[in-house]
């Protein structure tokens, strides 16, 4: 089946009609996507219905760790809401204006129905949950089965009610002006007595950022005659009042809203609720729903969503012969999760007028620059282009590129100005239709002009950066305000950001800038302390030389090199004021972060052999957690010390041990699909070094995998010879690119841009392939 599948997908891809009767016709990629993976144990994956990059994201909201609304390891459902983020850390995100359905009120008395969130929390049936791309269904203990699907800007719910013996059906559907993070500062709700239309608006706060945003909703019903309407607050209901508002004198945790009550549904015991969402106005929320779902066609909407997802995923095809179903699901589900965010809010941005696309939920670029955007460049270059244009337009209108952005607000910066890496990556890979001159202006501004508040954009400590060449632990920065921690991780990230600017400068012919930023990119070495030792539990690790914090006067401060690793105070290194000098990772790990200058780094760490043993130790000792994105590149960095076989081995260690099909099958938060994209790129066998035109070659986890560029139709195929699905033969013995021997252990984007075949001959033992100095990936400084 695997082989046929690969062939047929390839045929379909080139618009040849497949012969009827082939068993591979049965292959539906959506059967291999499980949206429930990573919905427990802090994965925070959005489990509900969404289009690719869709603004509307409908799901049941549960009580507990509900960053994305629904989490599998919870007990009660509190409502159904229409906008979410996926996989994020920080606080719960959005979930504005939940609706909730009850089949009838006890004794037919409205006052006896459940209104406020704490009262209406209802347990849910784990076995009832069904999640597929574009569809989510769940049964809750009040006898309601809720199903949902979405278009780009509206959700469609189908509530099916069980009749209880003592009470005829007369369903009540309420709208609550609350949101998941309970951040509301004010809001108002209305109900139309004649039609039952519920509308709402409110001002809310972003989940990992500053400021506030306004949001609007519009709910229409179909399937039952309207009985009466009204408003409610806390647990008091008033059927004579059709409006309700709350201001900031009312606690943001208070539930309040409007409702519509119906006579028994006409057939199938179902009522449909169509919910339009908008960031512009109630009117636009209503018109979004009317335009996208004129007919309340549930099956049709599910079908359209499935078609949209198949179209996105069909650019990848493979021969998965011999590979377990589980591993295939891990792969496809990862690809799916990569395309939930950023979300397309074009036409929904109230902040400025522009004809450019507007994407939101870059949540956060610190997480997404390493693998999400490089993967989108391969599988969805059009969306990647629209996203890059949107970033440039944010710069035009807000003055800086974001590092993080959600709900129309500036999000918190975690390290460097890593949008510089995303922009450079897209530039080098020739992503189309981007205004590169303005993009270049934007990245140079990051490097040169410190913003007033560098917690939400740009970089802090630029004066020290320019004069001293590092961020001192006791920086006396007066140019802007920000959290004075992370001096070491910011230094190494700023250095790499400058390298990315240098690459653009070179490509655009800005020679002086190229030289300037190349020079600054070597600043990582200024926080390298050659005689620093590190012990674990009092035993010397026998590795010497680590990045360390430094004072303004040049002398060294000290941070235990294992601090901020899983072995020591792992949870103490976030954006808290006591967050230490390395962010979400140890000095041990950040010592490896010079992706552009590996020749020099390897020399600094004592040569290739010593580098290899140190990198192995990083992985084997428990110092590295693959659930944080900085761990991705070190999986493959053995390529630089001429041991590409060890990268393959390391990749197979993490997948599947840390990534599987269970509800907790993701290490850490998925971070808008970052973990998903790590899986996909690792399993396809070409790891992109973000911000460079470099892919490190390891064997795919499949006999063969192809990516078709959906804009040009060009197909790039990576094929294993001697493929072994038990993964004992994972070492490249030799390679051919389009039939010619290929000895570099890396390849350029040209392979994808032009299409072609990369053949990898595998064996059970490490070989000489890709191990000569001339085979190694590019480095600013020479290898020795
Ligand atoms: C409705 O009732 C049927 C039959 O008793 C039961 O199987 C089903 O689980 C109920 N649905 C809900 C949502 O409670
Ligand atoms: C949804 O939005 C995407 C762009 O983000 C667009 O390509 C697609 O056609 C839209 N779908 C519908 C049904 O309008
Ligand atoms: C709602 O709150 C926001 C933010 O606090 C404020 O700007 C706006 O004026 C308020 N609106 C109303 C109607 O009170
Ligand atoms: C219900 O709303 C009506 C109309 O706004 C109002 O006159 C009445 O006082 C309210 N009743 C209660 C109990 O608040
Ligand atoms: C920071 O402090 C040093 C040493 O006191 C001083 O030389 C330098 O001018 C100060 N820089 C700023 C920006 O205040
Ligand atoms: C480091 O070397 C010492 C002396 O050879 C040895 O006792 C110790 O076990 C080594 N440490 C580790 C972590 O291997
Ligand atoms: C450098 O500054 C630090 C922090 O103020 C101080 O502890 C140290 O003694 C200074 N070193 C020298 C050589 O002045
Ligand atoms: C699945 O992945 C999770 C998260 O990495 C891990 O904790 C768990 O042990 C894995 N389960 C299996 C059966 O491998």
Task: Note down, in words, how this protein is organized.
- This protein has 20 helices and 33 strands.
- With 784 residues, the chain is α+β, with helices and mostly antiparallel strands.
- Among the domains are: 43-308, Beta-galactosidase, Chain A, domain 5; 460-624, alpha-1,2-mannosidases domains (Glycosyl hydrolase family fold).
- The strands form 8 sheets. It has a 9-stranded antiparallel β-sheet.
- It is globular, with a radius of gyration of 27 Å.
- Mean pLDDT is 96; it is low at 1-23.
- One 2-acetamido-2-deoxy-beta-D-glucopyranose is lined by residues 463, 476, 478, 552.
- One 2-acetamido-2-deoxy-beta-D-glucopyranose (NAG) binds at residues 463, 476, 478, 552.
- GO terms for molecular function: carbohydrate binding; peptide-N4-(N-acetyl-beta-glucosaminyl)asparagine amidase activity.
List ligands, each type once: 2-acetamido-2-deoxy-beta-D-glucopyranose
Average pLDDT taken over every residue: 96
Spatial order of strands in the largest sheet = 6-7-8-9-18-13-12-11-16
Helix content: 25-40%
CATH topology of the domain at 43-308: the name is Beta-galactosidase, Chain A, domain 5
**Number of H/I helices:** 20
What is the gyration radius calculated from CA atoms?
Answer: 27 Å
Which structural class fits the helix and strand makeup? alpha+beta
Extended strand count? 33
GO molecular function, one term: carbohydrate binding
Pfam families: Glyco_hydro_92, Glyco_hydro_92N
Keywords: Signal
Protein name: Alpha-1,2-mannosidase
